[in-house]
Amino acid sequence: MCEFVIDCPHFTPKWTDSGFVVIRNQNIRDGRLNLTEPSFTHQEDFERRIKRAKPIAGDIIFTREAPMGEVCLIPEGLECCLGQRQVLLRPKKEIDRHYLFYSLRSEYARHQIFWNEGTGSTVSNVRIPALKSLRIPRLGEVEGLIGALLGALDDKIELNRQTNETLEALARALFKDWFVDFGPTRTKAEGGAPYLAPELWALFPDALDDEDKPVGWESKPLSSFMSFRGGSQPPAKEFISEPKPGYTRLLQIRDFDTDAHITYVPDSTRLRKVSIDDICIGRYGTGSGDKKDSLGRLCRGLSGAINVALVRVEPRFPCREWLATYIGSGEFRQQISGGSARAVQAGFRKVDLDHILIPRAPDEVYQAFETFGELVWESAKRLSAESTTLAQTRDLLLPKLMSGEIRLRDAERAVDAVL
């Protein structure tokens, strides 16, 4: 089904701040290529890494290990090379690339990938001969229709993700303009034209004080905006991986990235529980200030009991969405990382909030921001829930279509019901 199956070059490229994109295993999750945090190399190493084959749109990247068996399609317009522990698959012209892509994600293929038939044990990496010998069901002319049908579900999931990203970016831009750059006040002070609705424009002063913040906005400690409660740590011997009566989900920082390690623990009044709307923050980390670091990281959108690496934010007044945007913008991470070596090593404490000073606007300004922020958050929840349903539908249909258990027409009706 492939023109070729080619292993990646076995050397580590020199990493650069810009240049040619190198696809790394961390960029591939759940069938999606995520390049929000790309890695780069220089032209010399790029040329070395594409010597055997240069990835083109429609090619499939397969991860051999760490993690094993993840796949993604190369999109249009992307010039890139493979990273380490990856294989490049180029479907033959007569093969529907989406069908092959979804086939590689099916349980039928993944059983072959993870299970060594010769020894009867699981494997930790995939060898090229084993990948080439994978058995993929051939279904004739319906292969293209299956690929298109499942692709429509993933396209909607991607559209939902992009919509949420756009709305969140708008909230961050509004936050920065109002509370960091003091845009309305600066514009007023310079005699500029209003760019907000009159009732919003009237909320902002028309001059800056000696500290270059809006007149009347006093510097207040973050502790006057929020407090927090830490999580608890049930013993690992109580952990189970499937839901069960009398158990509740234990939330860890990694759970806000992936569902690969869902854990449940016995329900108890000793647990510190959060709802989907609550704001949580990663309490520990390296203190690098990098957005990948867990210290000061925003975690939100799940319900359960938080472990000791997380804290639940408790707003002092109605400013929940303001706090979520502030924490999510990275401002808190930078401030807590740079302000206390002890906070980096042992997790920040409530007293650390006293040392972070923030200009405090009148309550009416926060109320205005909350109105917009709540719309963004409700949209994010709705689209995320819809994407979960779409993904569940896709994963339910995939094995049934591959095995012929369900007819294409019935699958189309199931897809129409959720799109």
UniProtKB/TrEMBL annotation:
It comes from the Bacteria. Pfam families: Methylase_S. GO terms for molecular function: DNA binding; endonuclease activity. Residues 31-168 form the Type I restriction modification DNA specificity domain. The keyword Hydrolase applies. GO terms for biological process: DNA restriction-modification system. Keywords: DNA-binding, Endonuclease, Hydrolase, Nuclease, Restriction system. SUPFAM superfamilies: DNA methylase specificity domain (SSF116734). InterPro entries: Restrct_endonuc_typeI_TRD (IPR000055), Restrct_endonuc_typeI_TRD_sf (IPR044946), Type-I_RS_S_subunit (IPR052021). Belongs to the type-I restriction system S methylase family. This is Restriction endonuclease S subunit. It comes from Thiorhodovibrio frisius.
